[in-house]
Amino acid sequence: PSPFDFWYYRPYRTYYVYGSPTRDPSSMGFLPSVFSYVFGDGSPNAQLTEVRVRGAAAAIREGGGAVTAEQLAPFADVGEGTTGEENYVDESFVVPIVSMLGGRPEVTEDGDIVYVFEELMQTGLGKEGMIKLMGVNNMEEYEEAMSARQSVSLPSEVSEVPYTFSSASPENKALAGLFGLANLGGVLYLSQLFSSPALQSAQLVGYVGAVRALMPFLLAYAVAFNAVPALRAAWIRRENRRIEGRNRTRRMWRAKLEGGGENVKRKLRAAKKFSQSMKSTGGKREVFDSGKDLVESQEERERQSLDQFDAKFRDKL
C-alpha cells in the first residue's frame, strides 16, 4: 500500500475494481482533481487479495481439488528479492492461499508436495468468506460489489496494476500544478514584502496583520502542496519497478508450469491421482450443502462430532 493512502478517502467502489477505473476522469471537478493531483487515488491493487484467492479457488476446482505449488504460484503474493529464475517454486509463497482456502499438504510417494482442498470442493467459497475477502461492512455493499465484479473475469495469473500519478484529466492536472506554483510564488512574494524593514517595524492590524501572523502556516502549506506530489512521483516510480519485478516473477512461474519440466510433470501426475482418489471415495465422505460456506461447514462438523460423542457416551451408560 502507498503511504499516501492514509490521506485518500475513497468510498468503496468509487474508482477501482481491481485496477480498472469505474469512473470517467473527465467527470471529476476541479477540487477532486486537485486532491487527486496532490495525494493520488489510492492503491489500484486494493482488491488484489480477493482476486488472488478467487483465482486460486478456480484453479483448484479445475484441478479437481488437488494442485501443486506450481499451479498456485501465479496467484501467490511474491516476496521481495524473488526473481523467478530458480528451478523451483518456493512453497512458502503459496502457504497463505492454502491456509485461506482450507487446504492441507500431502506428501507423494516421490517426496513431492501436493495440496488437497476437500472442503473447498465440497462447500465452495461462500458469501461470508467473500465478505471477509472484500472487506465490506454490510450486505448492501456486498451485493453492489458483486454486481460490479460480474464483468471482471478471473485471470489465469494475477498481475499487479502499476500506480498512476493521478486519475484526473490532463487539463485538471495542469491547472492543479499551476495552482500550486502560483500559490508558492505568492507566498514567497508576501514573505519578501513582510521581511522588509519598513513592515517589520510597523504594527500591522486587521487583515494584513492576520496574513503576516499566518505566514509560517501559509508557507508550509505552499511548500507541502508542491513537495508531496514530487515525493509521491518518486515513490511511484520505485514502487512500479517493484511491481514489474513481481509480475515478471509470476510470468516466469506460469511459464515453468506451461513448459512442463520432468519434476513439474511428475507433481502434476501425482496431483491428478489425488483428485481421482477424492472422486472415487467421495461417497464415503460427509455430505455438505453446496450453499454453505467453509465457516458454516466447520461449525456443522463440530456439532456432528459432539452429537456422535454424546451418542457413544449414552451407549456406555
UniProtKB/TrEMBL annotation:
Membrane spanning residue stretches: 174-194, 214-235
InterPro entries linked: At5g03900-like
Keyword annotations of the record: Membrane, Transmembrane, Transmembrane helix
Top-level taxon of origin: Eukaryota
Region (Disordered): 274-305
Basic and acidic residues: compositionally biased ranges: 283-305
Protein name (Swiss-Prot/TrEMBL): Uncharacterized protein
Organism: Triparma retinervis
Organismal lineage: Eukaryota, Sar, Stramenopiles, Ochrophyta, Bolidophyceae
